DNA sequence: CTGGTGAGTTGGTTTCTCCAACTCACTCTG
DNA sequence: CAGAGTGAGTTGGAGAAACCAACTCACCAG
């Protein structure tokens, strides 16, 4: 049966973080914003949508709401392990945006502990060589069964 | 002036590839699909949306339409340089999905030319060390002026 | 001449987004 | 103590986008 859409972790990932504003909200948490109004201001999303997105990110285990004040209850959003692991995705996306979308110099610059400006590169974890498309071959790809 | 949403290449990138189905369409091209109906089938997107997304990806220089048959005119979609560069983003996103979203074994597996199953890792291009969050410091981050 | 494929368009319904305004529980200032 | 300010949402209505099925048009194959 090779019916139906491809079953792929990219699609699965998009179900969880693919909606508009989800990634930008996460970016803000990476950048150090932890409170609702900060995230609203820095992303430009509307408050209701952001409420929904943050709620979903909490439900799917990417963010955690941590109480930092009772009376009135005030929460901050912090990354879970799954959230922290998104770092590499964000970094590569930013590098791509810098190179092919943003005009002019990169608006956001990070420094790595080695002292240089951070430029991410994706390597094969085994041989440590940069991953190039022509060096990749598809071994297996499943499909999702159609509901029949 | 520190007003308005943060100016960031992640946001800029999302304007171009952030809509639903855009990334999945691109995934299909990476996976070897080149024709409209293949992409429709493999993603599960509706045809009209996919028409719009592919058109946008062509306009923004990520895909190219290449005529492979006249009478009737038939086009295939191929990646431009900017499109090829998205490889690393897709790869990292897939790895994250494999680890934190997809239940069970990875649905899609690639082999690297070194002989091993491909596991992407993000390193600093200068020192070649894996990038960890605690080794990064924000140097500069601009903001977009509000329209005032 | 009927059926099939490739690449879309069209129309109508459902769903999502955006925005401004509103709430509620406080805290801070004069 | 009254009034303004802040943090974290919620609500309602308009407008945009997505979804789906059906339709078109051009060809080819039996």
The ordered string of helix (H) and strand (E) elements of chain A is HHHHEEHHEEE
**E-strand count of chain A:** 5
Radius of gyration over C-alpha positions of chain A, nearest whole angstrom:
19 Å
Oligomer: homodimer
Q: How are strands sequenced across the largest beta sheet of chain A?
A: 1-2
The helix tally of chain A amounts to 6
Low-confidence stretches of chain A: none
The greatest inter-chain interface is formed by:
A-B, 83 and 83 residues
Could you explain the architecture of this structure?
The structure is a homodimer of 148-residue chains. With 148 residues, chain A is of the alpha+beta class. Helices cover 39% and strands 20% of the residues of chain A. Chain A has helices spanning 9-17, 22-30, 36-43, 47-59, 81-85, 87-100, and strands at residues 63-69, 74-79, 108-112, 120-124, 136-141. The first copy, chain A, has a two-stranded antiparallel ribbon. In chain A, α2 crosses α3. The first copy, chain A, starts with 8 loop residues before the first helix and ends in a 7-residue tail after the last strand. At the A-B interface, α1, α2, α3, α5 and α6 of A face α1, α2, α3, α5 and α6 of B.
Describe, in short, the structure shown.
Chain A is α+β, with helices and mostly antiparallel strands and 148 residues long. The first copy, chain A, is built from six helices and five strands, in the order ααααββααβββ.
Structural key phrases:
homodimer, 148 residues, alpha+beta, two-stranded antiparallel sheet, 39% helix, globular, DNA-binding
């Amino acid at each position: 049966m090779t019916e139906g859409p491809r079953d792929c972790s990219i699609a699965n990932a998009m179900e969880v973080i693919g909606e508009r504003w989800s990634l930008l909200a996460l970016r803000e948490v990476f950048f150090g914003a932890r409170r609702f109004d900060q995230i609203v201001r820095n992303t430009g999303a509307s408050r209701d949508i952001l409420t929904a997105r943050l709620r979903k990110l909490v439900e799917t285990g990417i963010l955690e709401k941590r109480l930092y004040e009772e009376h009135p209850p005030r929460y901050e959003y912090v990354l879970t392990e799954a959230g922290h692991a998104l770092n590499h995705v964000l970094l590569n996306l930013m590098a791509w945006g810098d190179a092919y979308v943003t005009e002019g110099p990169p608006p956001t610059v990070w420094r790595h502990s080695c002292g240089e400006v951070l430029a991410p590169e994706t390597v094969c974890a085994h041989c440590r060589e940069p991953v190039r498309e022509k060096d990749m071959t598809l071994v297996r790809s499943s499909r999702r069964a159609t509901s029949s």
